[in-house]
Amino acid sequence: MTPNPTDTDEREVRFTWNLPQSRFMQCKSRYVNFEGAIRAGKSTPLVMKTITLMVDHPGIKCSLWRWTGDALETQLIPLFWELCPKELLDPKKPWDSKQEFVRFLNGSLCYLRSLRPGEGSGRYIKCSGLTLATVGVDQPEEVPEDIFLYLKGRMSQPGYPHQMLLTPNPPGQDHWICREFPTTHNLPNHEMIHTTTYDNRHILGEEYIADLELSYPPGHPMRHRMLEGKRGLQLEGEAVYGKIFKRDLHIAEVEAYPDIAVMEAWDFSKKHPAVLWSQFTPGGGWWPLMEYQGESIYLEELIPIILAMRQQAFPTQDIWPCCDPSGADTTSHGTSRTAVEILGDQQIFPAYVRGSNQRAKRTYAINQLARFMLRLTASGPALQAHPRCGILIDGFQAGYVYPEKSGGHNIRVPLKDGYYDNLQNCAEYTMLNFLVPGADDDVRGLDGTNHAPSAPPQRDIDPMDPPRPHGRGLAGY
Question: Would you call 41 exposed, middle or buried from its count of C-beta atoms within 10 A (0-12, 13-18, 19+)?
């Protein structure tokens, strides 16, 4: 898109910023993340901060980016020309279409480019070779991490202030933005500024706010992201339990029974290994009590963490472990020893059902979890999850989803998204290994009907499995 600046009359440009926008405009940190809800007013300050830097520092080389060319052409470039006072532009050649930059009269430049490489092009072709002072990326949640890291290396123009300015919508908890800008705010030279749709009320108007609140009422899994600008769930597909899991019904600060065994389910994900502790209650319920999800941690490092958590939370209970059956497979862990053998070194002998990740068995486990959500017991809903099981709860609500297409299979299985699925799989392993058929035959559902589970699949018995040990903290077959 080539500009056509014809009006050279002088004009005064005034903006009234809300508080988060003002913080962003004044922030001097090297890395600034202005993150928040949709229509919160993030792109406009990004462009105006860049223009201000170009005015205040003659000769500076700035840049503004979107991931796709379409988004650049239809959103970011029009916004730049709308906001940029025309008298600032170089009258001879304000726009270099070949290099894709705007030139100011004072010699400052601003590249306006997309980051997504064309087919057959080098991955970093759009930003390679540039020497920049500032990098501004609108909606960087669309940008792969490696390209973001490459952009960081382009901020090297000597003699000018260096800043990377990001204006994302709230990312999922597993996104690189969450690692680059943790909510603990503990990384030097990093500033995260949060904004909500309500902060931009004076621009959007009351009618827009009311419509958005109606679309995302309290309890809707996307309200916290769309209106409040908080990180977390991104509803992308049909939620497995979306129609039956209710936060106000299924979350409670339940505490473990001191004299009943605690189920401990392990998932050996390479990126996010997970462990879930839960109990089957005397009244026919199932209570998730505590979770752990790591990040790129070796099993040998994970085990002492889990043992410490277990000892602190469940000092008197027997612990019955179970696990992903891939834990008995050497090929899935890149080592000559299996995860089950490594656990055994620490006197942890998990049960497992071979084929637990097959469609039929996963569907069985999902059905049992759904039945717990639908049943009432004398003490309340059969499924009551402790609030500290945050990732599991978010997965129940909307994070654990079915794909849009079944891939030609009659039985759908949820997506392996790499984040929410790990603890969901732990819940499924618990159902497959420990659910006793008929234990809750007399429990009636919310609709008054009986929801007693059918018999679970039989576990395979391996003659090489260790015998089931006795005593607190150990379990097996």
Answer: buried
Lowest average pLDDT, out of 62-71, 338-347, 356-365, 397-406, goes to 397-406
Q: What is the pLDDT of residues 41-73, one digit of tens each?
A: 999 999 999 999 999 999 999 999 999 999 999
Query: Domain boundaries in the chain?
Result: 19-204, 247-434
In eight-state DSSP terms, residue 74 is I
Distances (CA, A) of 460 to 41, 454, 469: 57, 18, 18
Q: What pTM was computed for the model?
A: 0.68
The terminus-to-terminus CA distance of the chain in angstroms comes to 68
Percentage of the chain modeled with pLDDT above 90: 65
| Rounded distance between C-alpha atoms, residue 263 and residue 284, angstroms | 15
**369 in helix, strand or coil?**
helix
SS3 109: strand
* CATH number belonging to domain 247-434: 3.30.420.240
- CATH code, 19-204: 3.40.50.300
